Description:
Blueprint: E1 8-12, H1 15-18, H2 64-78, E2 82-86, H3 89-92, H4 103-118, E3 122-128, H5 134-140, H6 147-163, E4 169-173, H7 182-185, H8 192-219, E5 224-230, E6 234-236, H9 241-263, H10 268-276, H11 287-293, E7 299-302, E8 307-309, E9 317-318, E10 325-326, E11 332-333, E12 339-340, H12 342-356, E13 360-364, H13 382-400, E14 406-409, E15 432-434, E16 446-448, H14 450-460
Helix pairs in contact: 2-4, 6-8, 8-11, 12-13
Amino acid sequence: MAFNEFFMWGGATSACQCEGAYNIDGKGLSAIDMLPLCNKGQLRTPTSEILEDSFYPSHQAIDFYHYFKEDIKLFAEMGFQCYRMSISWPRIFQTGDNEIPNEAGLEFYDKIFDELAKYKIEPIVTISHFDDPYEAEKKYGDWNHREWINMYYKYATTILDRYHDKVKYWMTFNEINTLMYYPLFHGMEKNHDSMQIVYQMAHNKFLASAMTVKYAHEHYPELKVGMMLASTTIYPYSCNPNDVMKSMEREEETFFFSDVQVRGYYSSGALKKMESYQVKIDIHKDDEKILKEGTVDFIGFSYYSTSVAVSEDEKIEVSGNFMKGQKNPYLQVSEWEWQIDPTGLRYTLNQLYNRYQIPLMIVENGLGAEDTIEKDGTIQDDYRIHYLREHIKEMEMAVSVDGVELLAYTPWGCIDLVSASTGEMKKRYGFIYVDLDDVGQGTFNRYRKKSFYWYKKVIESNGKEL
């Protein structure tokens, strides 16, 4: 049997893409709350204030805040053994630097965890998933300022203390390596000035993560605390050595983040890369000791597609999760031009496990597509079933043939939610359809898709029936 009795099947969401209730029960504004809807193929940019004539998808999202009991009941009907979710930082500390946490926010997550426990669903909690407190951003700027470390540590230890007996698995930051692409998000090239900011932000997040891991290990040794990567497996376009070196260089940008959090120090290659950008990180006296003492227990990662690197930028470019890359002529693409590569998942699992030899979790994987409700009320999403089936097959090979230690599989957007990059609802991932359009109009009714019943059988058979 490929998957043992301890392997967990489930699904994944984030607070800022599903909860809504952005100003209810004392919640403060998050960075995501300042991102209005944009068109397909564009990247959302924040506004400095909430504009009356703009629609902000996170403000209501799918209103999981009020529908969580109904939604968790549907997760249980599918047979979920785990649920990967996040806690909204500004729901707990509205401005980031509050002295006292918001009790109403803490009580909301108590209710979530109690509801999950009722159905014996194990929560896997991301502490920070792209929703930093907006007031803290205005006051302190980006994460290159060290004030963020103490704010995060206070928030993280508060929720560890509160929920340690309800949550065993934690991840410190969602897709931490997307920091490397922030300069591009803001229209900047990777030059000396922008990379100084990026590497300082990374260093400060590494410290915040390590301090949190160390605290959890010392106070609650039964907890497992991991990190989370956006996997960016990149093939060389050809056997041209220059293409091979280009792909290695691009992948090392990702491994930089996992190397530090798993090993507890900066590799010689990372130090050389910083030197090439003339980057000098502000490292305090005990920073290196903190990194060494706060290494993670497992790696969670998102996997949607792979990319291709070419030494001469003359090929066709396609989209991906937070980054663009060259077109792979052997792969098909989704409606959003993300390359579909099931075999790449097995390759990625082997890459990470062979490099680090610690357990892995696939905490995001799925197909964003436009779904249609048929006249008989069904949603025939065979394309999603096919995508997930082929990826699970490769996941099984990585475990049974290659010996990868895999703890869990939680497909992304197990219930439809708003897209992080564009804010659209029509880019749907879920097994559960939510009746809302891109501008928040709809009944909020939930409907089971064909994939709902398919995934239920997958879980019941522990991956045997695909």
